[in-house]
Design a protein that fits this description.
Blueprint lengths: L1 H25 L3 H9 L24 E7 L5 E7 L2 H6 L1 H6 L6 E2 H5 L8 H7 L4 E6 L11 H9 L8 E6 L13 H16 L12 H5 L18 E6 L1 H16 L7 E5 L5 H5 L19 H9 L7 H10 L5 E8 L7 H13 L12 E6 L9 E8 L11 H12 L2
């Protein structure tokens, strides 16, 4: 009997080892690897209608669904959401003009004076602030807690300072076409914000290498409708959305030399995908994915070289902070009880940012730290970088908590 149990335990263990090795081998194939990274094929749009906004807690006409088309001909689906007080003021007209299907952004924006939509109310209000959110992996822009995040941010809106929210699905997610990649989803974000701010796109693009990005130059606005100045736009990313938003922000400012946004807020970030795999736990249940390879450093190093989308957030952030001619308002926020991406990943980003300007930071119990670089006579521009560690919030609830609202208010008030 004892031998039987030992044999059973042996075969179970051998099966687990074999499954782990086969899983790692499969992940060396880019298609499999990207499916595991982005989880974009976990797509609830098969049974959820993203045009039925009332099923996600919004009112008819409060959300304007729209699309933008990238230079490589992918269609990106997005929502624009109105704060409740603005919706109440225009409710009857918004309901009457509510769209039955998503229209291209340019078509909606050019209908000023003809139909009432949230996008037109945004463009017509010189005091309005726009928050653009970058969501994490799996699902779509309205999955799970995400509508609660938008409503949380819309709750900051006041009549004197209306706050609108736009969220979008990267290529391959939700109703957006295509397959995600580091270059592709960066292009998606560049495309969306180019439409909103009045920057042009090239007539064609083969890939998103740096030279291709540098071809996306600013033109003199010729649109027949109003545009949003980047200084009135705040970018917020969570989890996977932190490396998409950072890559986008870096491409927009450092590579394209376009005007910076009002602020960049990163929730549950990590420094790069390679290092994350050494510490990432699936829902806090499994050991770190690469921990069994601790005794085989050569194998782990080789697997690191097989990662196709590295998402080097730490390096991009440090370049943003070190760029002397680039104003920056950056917040890095993490929850202590985040079991999926440990808070030290966010701290590593903070460390790299500080190292880029020659500031040594020692890990301590301080929950909030701030570094400021005021404008000087040598041409330097004002920069503010904040690190905040919340006691609670986990990996996902952090986006619906009060901490992110305070972070937005700090950006708006310049604190």
């Amino acid at each position: 009997m004892a031998l039987s149990w030992l044999q059973r335990a042996y075969w179970i263990l051998a099966g687990c080892v074999l499954a782990y090795v086969l899983g790692l081998a499969a992940l060396t194939y880019p298609v499999v690897q990207r499916n595991a990274t982005y989880l974009h094929n976990v797509n609830p749009t098969l049974w959820q209608n993203l045009l039925d906004v009332e099923s996600f807690g919004f009112l008819r006409g409060q959300v304007t669904p729209f699309t933008v088309t990238t230079a490589d001909n992918e269609t990106i689906f997005a929502w624009h959401m109105l704060p409740a007080h603005v919706y109440k003021e225009h409710q009857d007209q918004l309901i009457q003009d509510a769209q039955l299907s998503p229209l291209p952004y340019e078509e909606i924006a050019s209908q000023q004076g003809k139909k009432k939509t949230g996008i037109q109310l945004l463009l017509d209000d010189a005091n309005a602030i726009l928050i653009v959110t970058f969501h994490g992996n799996a699902g779509h822009l309205a999955s799970a807690f995400r509508p609660g995040q938008y409503q949380n941010l819309l709750g900051l809106s006041t009549p004197s300072r209306p706050i609108h929210v736009i969220s979008f699905d990267y290529r391959g997610f939700g109703l957006s076409t295509g397959w995600p990649s580091e270059e592709g989803v960066t292009l998606d974000a560049v495309t969306l914000l180019s439409h909103i701010t009045g920057h042009t796109m090239p007539s064609s693009i083969v890939d998103m290498t740096n030279p291709a990005l540098q071809s996306l130059q600013l033109s003199s606005p010729s649109s027949p409708h109003s545009l949003m100045d980047p200084s009135r736009i705040i970018i917020i990313g969570q989890s996977l959305g932190t490396f998409v938003s950072t890559s986008f922000y870096h491409a927009w400012t450092v590579q394209l030399r376009r005007p910076p946004f009002k602020g960049l807020i990163l929730l549950a970030s990590f420094s790069n995908l390679t290092k994350l795999l050494d510490s990432y736990s699936i829902k806090g249940i499994t050991p770190p994915l690469f921990s069994p390879l601790a005794l085989y450093p050569a194998a782990r190093t080789w697997l690191h070289t097989q990662i196709v989308d590295n998402w080097d957030t730490g390096t991009r952030l440090s370049e943003l902070v070190a760029a002397k001619d680039l104003p920056l308002d950056l917040t890095i926020m993490h929850a202590l009880d985040d079991v999926e991406i440990p808070w030290r990943e966010g701290w590593r980003n903070w460390e790299q940012c500080m190292e880029s300007v020659g500031v040594h930071v020692a890990e301590d119990r301080a929950e909030f730290q701030i570094w400021e670089n005021e404008e000087d006579a040598h041409g330097g521009t004002k920069k503010v970088v904040r690190w905040e560690r919340l006691r609670k919030g986990g990996h996902n609830k952090i986006v619906t908590g009060e901490g992110v609202k305070v972070a937005v208010l700090r950006v708006l008030d310049g604190d």
